[in-house]
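Notes, Module 5: Reading structure tokens.

Key idea: the token line is not a picture. It is a compressed description, and you learn to read it the same way you learned to read a sequence, by spotting repeated patterns. We will look at two proteins. The first is printed below with its tokens.
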Amino acid sequence: MYFNELFKALLTLSIAFTLLLTGCVKSPLSRPLSSTPREHYIVLHSSDRQMGTDIDHDAGNVNWAAVKSTGTNWVYCKVNGGYSNADSGFVDPMFATYWPQLKKANIARGAYCFFDLNGDGETQAKKYLALVAAAGGFNAADLPPQLDIEWTPTPANTPFPASNTWQDEALEWLTYVELKTGRIPIIYTGLGMAKNKFDSRFSKYPLWVARYPTENTIKPTSNPYPKYAPKNVGPWKSWAIWQYSENGNISGIGIGQDLDVLKGNIEDFVKKTTVE
């Protein structure tokens, strides 16, 4: 009896293994991730990442000690800018509060400008730098300046700006800020824009890409530790930061937050984005 049962078990395992190898049965990690083929992703191990988030005034008053206790090691704060000409003059009313608070809490900090694709790049850069300076300025240990480039048309039927116009203005912002700060700015954008709207001139700037997977096999199992990350990102060979959720929960912040992961460690990232 014992040997018969053992033989049946071994036979079952042998058949299952053969089916797995031939592709008749797929392991959980071989299934497509959402509608995107798996070759568009890379495995990101826990030792290669630093978790962070980005915030604006909607977060209200923040308990930074609680935020830090979640393993959130860095935070970018919105400084200025908006979606269209109508609000590109917007100044985030909480930036001047968050900026010194993050330093006191010993959380790595960064400052971002939401770029107006229809506006003048240098004008937006000057305003951004003036606002950061008024809040205490950049320190050598701070994360590099960030330019948020995305498109939400207002009204909805507004055509996308001409590439030769907005790209030149964005490069004007990036060049001016790099010159004035001695830091190489990072670009934030969505995966679709990264692939289709940027040319090779932008590849010198590190990429922060937003891509939100939905497949069960890649949902974080802790707070938060994603396993898969986008790989093919237009003119960039790779990305520096991946935003993998826009509705995460971080203790100390009272609203849903973006969840982001920095590849590597903060000190190396700061060093790589410092002009020698």
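Here is the second protein, with the sequence above and the tokens below, as before.
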Amino acid sequence: MSDLSIVFMLLAAAIAMFALGRPRMDVVALLMVVALPLTGIISVQEALAGFSDPNIILIAALFVVGEALVRTGVAQMLGDWLVSRAGRSEARLIVLLMIVVAGKPDPTFVGFEELLAPIRSATTLEGALLERGIEAVCSCRDDLVMVPLENPLPVLPEARAFLRRNEWSKASGLRLGSEVHTREFYRPDLLVVDRSLHRALLLDIKRSVASHKPKVLAELRTRMMAAALVTRDWLERECDAPPVERVEIAIIDGSGDPADHARAIFALSDLDQLIGITGAAKAIEALRHLYAARLREILLPRCRSIAGVAGGSGNQRSDPGTGTTGLDERFDGRDDGSDDAGGVIGGITRNGAGSGKAEATVLRHDARVSVGIASLGGRT
């Protein structure tokens, strides 16, 4: 067999594995690096020479930046905005994407860039705050398991077809295989397994559901339901998670608007019942109040500066010369003289541990706590 035939065979195998998503992309790349020298196509030195290429290092760094944008919610927020504006028009989506990538400044807000930066950052960070806050609250119950998602859940065409003909109440007990090739996937913000109820819960957390069009929310609900049908099989195959008998979905609306359970939209006040923790909703609401207080501390001096009013607050921590927003600072607990900074667990802690009843409360009323959660991505 000629070298060219071997190269084409390896290329076809790599393309097939990339398309199937199994194994992971980085594993496929390493397999090709090993396979080429083993087949004698190139030498070991030639195979490893690529790692010293600056372009390879740049691409690796871009993966890190991309993952950071996904974890902080920036990519999700931008993607939701683009889809809501573009609708079903591919041409409109391409044009909007080009405009966003170009980063052209908005002429309407010339002179107010210093104010807009923290506002835009605040909305993104607040979404991350809700997600990480709920994750921290779930840790109050030992029988709640947070399942990490390395890969999104598959959305099968068969599941969509079944949901078009049946109500969710009839479909929730259905179990479909997850090892089926599909081009559509869905990644929930949180996947929670309740070991006591043998139930899995897919959570999609929105800062405000009202900012999304009804058809976008309807499509989101359909994707969540379709993904839920393969979740039981996926948990058994891919994760070391407890067995579940049913999978439920919930779109959490953090704005405080009334719930619409028929559309799978749950208010923040429903959180206690959803995850079985008394005081969960109040803890998240208190966390948002702390975040809002810190945000006002940052915005007030900037508003005064733009308006030309003297006597701006000295609490502003951002440097206008660097363009930082002041929201990306990490809470370290040193400014208030506290010697127990390590006790702040995402602004939320377990209350009444050992009493057999899970409760969530805000541990300390410090306005920086919630900012720290958002900027740290929920790390404790």
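Summary for the second protein:
- The first helix runs from residue 3 to 20.
- The radius of gyration is 24 Å.
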